[in-house]
Amino acid sequence: MWSEFEATPWDHADRDLARGQRVMRALRRFELAELAMRDRCAAAMNVSEGELLALRHVIRRQREQLPTTPTDIAHHLEVKPAAVTGVIDHLERAGHLVRGPHPSDRRSTVLTAVPAAAARIDEIYGAVYRTMMDVAAGLDDAEAERTEALLNALADAIDGFATVAADS
């Protein structure tokens, strides 16, 4: 994994390409910082990153007043339903969520985050979100539009490549 300071096989002497590389390095630095923040949050909650993602999904759906089933978690994590059993078991043992009967499907279970887990997630992610929003809100309209366009174009490029790579 390369950092913003390392030379890469793609170092460019061309001024435009070098500028693009600086942008990509900054984006990679952000990505690594975000990953490290998620790792710290997972450690603070005594869960794995996948378990943290599952718990955040349950909390988000609760706020939308939607029931969350193990199958919902599997779809969210993009894994097979059988693979989430351990995730749910650990979150339940850690006291972060409880299982209950589904209101309309007797064969299914609804997962509910306990209030303390939701509060802890809000505490951790709320501060991060507010800090990032302060930075983003400091952009003027033109900067925000260019940044948004750049990030969307990069996402489209990756999505397009992933489709081509999957077809190969």
Summarize the structure.
With 168 residues, the chain is mainly α.
Structure description:
There is one protein chain. The protein contains six helices and two strands; from the N terminus they run ααααββαα. The protein has 168 residues and is mostly helical. It has a single domain, classed as Winged helix-like DNA-binding domain superfamily/Winged helix DNA-binding domain (Arc Repressor Mutant, subunit A). It has a two-stranded antiparallel sheet. Helix 2 crosses helix 4. The protein starts with 14 loop residues before the first helix and ends with a helix. The mean pLDDT is 87.
Q: List the domain count as a whole number.
A: 1
List how many beta strands DSSP finds: 2
CATH architecture: Orthogonal Bundle
Mean pLDDT: 87
Order of helices and strands: HHHHEEHH
Shape: elongated
Give the end-to-end Cα distance, rounded to a whole number of Å: 25 Å
Oligomer: single chain
Strand arrangement within the widest β-sheet reads 1-2
The amount of helix comes to 55-70%
Characterize the largest beta sheet: strand count, sense, and whether it forms a barrel: 2 strands, antiparallel
According to CATH, the fold-level topology is Arc Repressor Mutant, subunit A
Q: Point out poorly predicted stretches.
A: none
Strand composition percent: 5-15%
Instruction: Supply the CATH superfamily name.
Output: Winged helix-like DNA-binding domain superfamily/Winged helix DNA-binding domain
Decide which structural class fits the backbone: mainly alpha
Indicate the radius of gyration in whole angstroms.
20 Å
